[in-house]
Design goal:
Elements (H helix, E strand, L loop, with lengths): L3 H20 L3 H5 L2 H20 L2 H27 L24 H4 L3 H23 L1 H16 L8 H21 L1 H4 L2 H21 L12 H15 L14 H12 L1 H22 L6 H22 L1 H6 L61
Helix pairs in contact: 1-3, 1-12, 1-13, 1-14, 3-4, 3-6, 3-8, 4-6, 4-13, 6-7, 6-8, 7-8, 7-11, 8-11, 10-11, 13-14
């Protein structure tokens, strides 16, 4: 049974990411640190997969992650090659982005969200060992990414590679997802969890205020402030997450929207930025500036509309990758199961009706087993 509260968090995170990229409002990153929340939710799911399947969960997670990227690459990589991108072996990173794949002048911005998949891949690879360590020494394991990031930020590791820096920035959120899955956050007393969240939030706020970036108080420009502030947010938003949120589905429109964005989260994430980049010069010609509320609202509406089109066209790839029946728009009413009439044998004198199984031509009809002889059929629902 899915936790609809966690689905709602992912739904809000996707919306926040898209609105932020359209508007550029750095305040949104403070109100809802969406990327850290998404990594925390992914970490919780990864822990559940490892518990269910062991090490093969890594391959299954990659199988669900990469096909949507391959669709994007199949469209945009040839376009970039035709507009100046050199054809080198590094282009293969678009098939398996363990490092930043190459891009030309326009592709670097339109496909910039690829960093999320790069980090996701590394976090998935690290998860079997990280989960093993976490369950033996939870608190030191949780603190390790934040200590790494602090060492980088104060200059102790000045030439740290991007992937290592992002381990410090986002792997802590991933590990908090482990803590959620294992129930560690729920078992932590409120008198401990709340003061911890307040202390982390205060430390993050102090760093943010004293280390503003080029865009002001935008978390994306302040890694250590981002990590601390996001950890406090996750402790509150996920640490005390309800086990269910049935009210989400009481409104049919909201419930369907939450379902669609959860089933198409990767498609929405990968496709929204190309539309933001493509629309910006067009709407500027019309005069819809970033300072114009109406213009911004139109930009947001257009991007969401185009993402909706991309979701219909390419979102079914996520279904195939997850080995679900492909759907254009997920969350519709399930198809009723076919009802096959069971033939019955003639009623013998003084006897009772006995159900029989249909037999191929040329073979005798064999009575079906009686109720006392039947086996229970157990259906596993994902």
């Amino acid at each position: 049974m899915r936790n609809r509260y966690l689905d709602l968090l992912r739904f809000l995170a996707i919306i926040r990411v898209v609105v932020y990229h359209v508007t550029g409002w750095g305040t949104l990153t403070l109100l809802f640190p969406a990327m850290s929340v998404m990594f925390a939710l992914a970490g919780s799911l990864m822990a559940a997969s490892l518990d269910r399947s062991g090490a093969p969960a890594v391959g299954r997670r990659l199988r669900r992650l990469l096909p949507s990227l391959w669709v994007v690459a199949a469209i945009f990589v040839p376009a970039m090659l035709l507009t100046g991108l050199p054809l080198t072996p590094k282009v293969l990173l678009w098939a398996f982005p363990v490092a930043d794949p190459p891009a030309n002048y326009w592709g670097a911005l339109a496909l910039s969200p690829i960093w999320y998949l790069r980090d996701y891949l590394w976090f998935v690879f690290a998860s079997p060992l990280a989960l093993w360590l976490f369950r033996r020494a939870p608190w030191p394991t949780l603190l390790a990414p934040y200590a790494l990031l602090a060492a980088i930020e104060v200059g102790m590791l000045p030439n740290a590679p991007t992937v290592l820096r992002d381990f410090g920035l986002y792997f802590g959120a991933w590990l908090l997802g482990f803590a959620h899955h294992d129930g560690l956050l729920r078992r932590t007393a409120t008198r401990v969890l709340v003061p911890t969240a307040l202390a982390l939030g205060a430390a993050g706020a102090a760093w943010i205020v004293t280390h503003p970036g080029p865009r002001g108080y935008d978390l994306n420009d302040m890694p250590l402030g981002n990590a601390l502030w996001s950890a406090a947010f996750i402790l509150v938003a996920i640490g005390r997450a309800p086990t269910s949120a049935a009210w989400v589905d009481r409104n049919a429109l909201l419930g369907r929207a939450v379902t669609v964005l959860n089933r198409r989260a990767l498609t929405c994430y990968l496709w929204h930025m190309p539309f933001v980049v493509a629309l910006t010069p067009l709407v500027d010609v019309v005069g819809w500036s970033h300072q114009d509320p109406v213009g911004l609202a139109i930009r947001v509406a257009l991007v969401f509309a185009l993402v909706g089109v991309a979701t219909v066209l390419f979102g079914w790839v996520e279904d195939v990758a997850a080995r679900r029946p492909p759907e254009l728009i997920p969350g519709g009413r399930p198809r009723p199961a076919a009802r096959n009439p069971v033939p019955v044998s003639p009623v013998p004198a003084g006897g009772s009706v006995v159900p029989v199984s249909p037999a191929p031509a040329g073979r005798a009809v064999v009575p079906a087993p009686r109720a006392s002889e039947e086996h229970t059929l157990r259906i596993s629902v994902r």
